[in-house]
Amino acid sequence: MTAVLAAAALLLTAGCSSDDGGAARGNGSASPSDTPAKSSPSERTAEETPPAEGSVKVVRTVATGLSTPWGLAPLADGDLLVSSRDEATITRVDGRTGEKTELGEVPGVSPSGEGGLLGIALSPEYASDHMIYAYFTSASDNRIVRMLYDEQKPPGEQLGAPDTILRGIPKGVVHNGGRIAFGPDRMLYVGTGESGDTGLSQDKDSLGGKILRLTPEGEPAPGNPFPDSPVYSYGHRNVQGLAWDREQRLFASEFGQNTWDELNAIKPGDNYGWPEAEGRSDEGGFHNPIDQWSTDEASPSGIAHAEGSIWMAGLLGERLWRIPLKDTAASAEPQAFLKGEYGRLRTVVPAGGDRLWLVTSNTDGRGEPKDGDDRILELQVS
């Protein structure tokens, strides 16, 4: 513990900011369910531009009393799986009653700083293989594993032994990335961070500061832009949000350092600029963001697509941003909702049609927990 605290202090003294704005900034989705989601009358056609003004209604609080929740994976029956960063557990939340049942603890997780058990996703063949994928920080690296979920076993013993499909993602006290999601192509997409070593982002031989694209077995996915490499895009600082629109276009949120947080449209093989560029840049060769925010207004983690917009959860910003889209550009000014009402917001996941699941993050050591924190909310959006 002393070593971890010393490392954190050294990073802050050197001016390395946290990934979510919990410490002072220095100078230095959703997994597929068993069955396809049914279309809703509220879903917009692919060519329709969303209105400039939207709305958010908190329909209900689904669950309370969660400890350091991070990843969320909806099941086909309406229940939700949620990971705990610090406890390294996965819990099933009844989507109607909010009752919580612990599946088990993921072995090998080494929580410290911003690391621990982070994103989770369901196998694209979950209906038949019952596999849960998880991204976590070990004692030596960040890695991705998959585990069998056996509901017939007693609570607390329902997770099978982890099968590691990818290891060697750089770890740090900060900037561990952690979001994983299966895309429309049934490949596994992974958001990683540069672990505080900014040089890794431009190094295409490193897994840090990247978006990776893998087969479900952990191999570089067919069609990736760099031969025999899992790297899909590079020049990222710390990616914790991944989402696709109805045209199967990928978007990602990214933590800035001192000035600009970003929402990016991801093109395979493109360079997103870090550390040479933070936010928009006139320098050639970098893919500019769709939009950018000051770091105290956003510090974005999860994102989701619904009703023609990207919805982006803000940690330090303590608000939910709506970014209406036309193709891969913003069609109107972003709007902020829920500002300060629920504290830090970590994860947002589509719940079908005009609904979203939203997870707060006030028990992670950087928030100010209120009675009932942390919680999962159901939202109705437009």
Automatic annotation (TrEMBL):
Coiled-coil regions listed in the entry: none
Superkingdom of the source species: Bacteria
Record's signal peptide: 1-19
Swiss-Prot/TrEMBL keywords: Signal
Region (Disordered): 16-54, 362-382
Family matches, as Pfam families: GSDH (PF07995)
Protein name: Glucose/arabinose dehydrogenase
Biased amino acid composition, Basic and acidic residues: 365-382
Ranges of biased composition (kind: Polar residues): 28-43
Glucose/Sorbosone dehydrogenase domain boundaries: 66-366
